[in-house]
Amino acid sequence: MSSTPFPPVLRRISASDNAAIAHVIRQVSAEYG
Fold first, then answer.
1. pLDDT in tens, 1-33
2. Alpha helix ranges (H) inside the chain
3. Is this model's pTM higher than 0.85 or not?
4. Cβ within 8 Å of residue 24, ≥6 positions away
5. Cα–Cα dist 20/29, whole Å
6. Contacts of 17 (CB under 8 A, 6+ apart)
7. b vs e for 11-26, b when ≥16 Cβ sit within 10 Å of the residue's Cβ?
8. Residue 22 C-alpha from the chain's centroid
9. 9 phi and psi, to 5 degrees?
10. Which three-class secondary structure state does DSSP give residue 4?
11. Do 21 and 13 contact (CB within 8 A), yes or no?
């Protein structure tokens, strides 16, 4: 796991990374929404 929140090359996002990002977005949306 890399500690970089958003790597410069977004084309290399794997399915698991995408799911993790979606999970974080949902948490943030829950906090601010």
1. 556 666 565 566 677 788 888 999 999 999 987
2. 15-32
3. no
4. none
5. 14
6. none
7. eeeeeeeeeeeeeeee
8. 6
9. -105, 90
10. coil
11. yes
